[in-house]
Design goal:
about 325 residues, alpha/beta, about 50% helix, globular, binds guanosine-5'-triphosphate, binds magnesium ion
Length: about 325
């Protein structure tokens, strides 16, 4: 992440003139420009590509932290408390709350806004929700573009909140350097979900609602699972800590913030691992865009060929491999 001060430059001479104005506004921390740009990103405006290219090239400075866990586990409440903690230290914080399960910008997303309401008048805080409605080409792609915008603004911390354990959420979490995984102590279900593989993406585990009598048992279960995971991956040098929090009153939040700092310090002390992580992230982003571009192409130029030839596949006079290869060959 070492980078010299780079100005936001249009990627080519024929790039639209708006780039300069938008870039200057973002550089000065203009929240309205940021919000408008993210709305355009959500609509998937194709004309935005040159701007996003320019913004990507000056990014890579913000600390990106993911916060994930089942619905209602307390993510937004905890995020709000983390914002408060970091604001006292003078850090500028952006939050992207991504809800792949909701087609609406209401519901849970509105709840997030309410829970983080205390920060909405603060110029040093930006909070944005994204639901799956209206994204051409998927929420993960739109979220990646929104992160490009936020990253170019050089927020000290960008928090991504996303619900659940599905593929979309895992994809979104891949944008984060440090992932905080929340559980509650209510029964064994959450721990089961963790066993199903999500532990692989967690760098820090939080047992929220820790006033519950089962909290300590959940902590030990998680610690056991982490030890097991470390045995399976002995090359890992970071041992994910387990933190108890009570997000509603802020208990454990300072400790969590310390662990987040430690995790970044650990990464910084392991340049090779940090480089691998950045490389994987860049590859993932390229893959995601490639997928999106192929899909767009399929919808436009090749859509007719697909429609004309799919019956033959259906009747088994042809096969999916042959048609996929033909479609690919026709894309220049
Ligand atoms: N008892 C208790 N309740 C909590 C705690 N933290 C959060 N809550 C409550 O749990 C409910 C859900 O909290 P949210 O912060 O909205 O949870 P979330 O994970 O963001 O939920 P979604 O975004 O809908 O997935 C709210 O009513 C909170 O007040 C806690 O530590 N203890
Ligand atoms: Mg929430």
């Amino acid at each position: 992440m070492v980078q010299t001060q780079k100005e936001i430059q249009p990627p080519s001479a024929d790039a639209p003139p708006e780039i300069g104005a938008i870039a200057a506004a973002l550089r000065s921390g203009d929240i309205r420009t940021c919000a408008r740009l993210i709305s355009r990103v959500e609509r998937g405006e194709p004309g935005l590509v040159p701007l996003l290219q320019a913004l990507y090239r000056v990014g890579g400075r913000s600390r990106i932290v993911g916060v994930t866990g089942s619905p209602g586990v307390g993510k937004s409440t905890l995020v709000s408390k983390l914002i408060g903690f970091w604001r006292k230290r003078g850090l500028r914080i952006a939050v992207l709350a991504v809800d792949p399960s909701s087609p609406f910008s209401g519901g849970a997303v509105l709840g997030d806004r309410l829970r983080m309401r205390e920060h909405t008048c603060d110029e040093g805080v930006f909070i944005r929700s994204m639901a799956s409605r209206g994204q051409l080409g998927g929420l993960a792609k739109a979220a990646g573009d929104a992160l490009t915008v936020l990253d170019a603004m050089r927020w000290d911390v960008i928090l991504i909140e996303t619900v659940g354990v599905g593929q979309n959420e895992t994809d979104i979490m891949r944008h984060a350097s440090v992932v905080v995984l929340l559980q509650t102590p209510m029964g064994g279900d959450d721990v089961q979900a963790a066993k199903a593989g999500i532990t692989e993406i967690g760098d820090i585990f939080v047992v929220n609602k820790s006033e519950h009598p089962e909290a300590d048992r959940t902590v030990s279960q998680l610690e056991e699972m982490i030890t097991l995971g470390l045995c399976l991956h002995p090359e890992t040098t970071w041992r994910p800590p387990v933190v108890k929090t009570r997000a509603i009153n802020g208990e454990g939040v300072a400790e969590l913030a310390d662990h987040i700092d430690d995790c970044f310090a650990h990464l910084a002390g392991q340049p090779e691992a940090a480089r691998r992580q950045l490389r994987e992230r860049a590859k993932h982003r390229v893959g995601e865009l490639l997928h999106y571009m192929l899909e767009q192409r399929l919808r436009s130029d090749s859509g007719q060929l697909l429609e004309d030839s799919i019956d033959a596949v259906m009747k088994r006079d042809s096969d999916p491999y042959a048609l996929a290869a033909e479609l690919l060959a026709r894309m220049d």
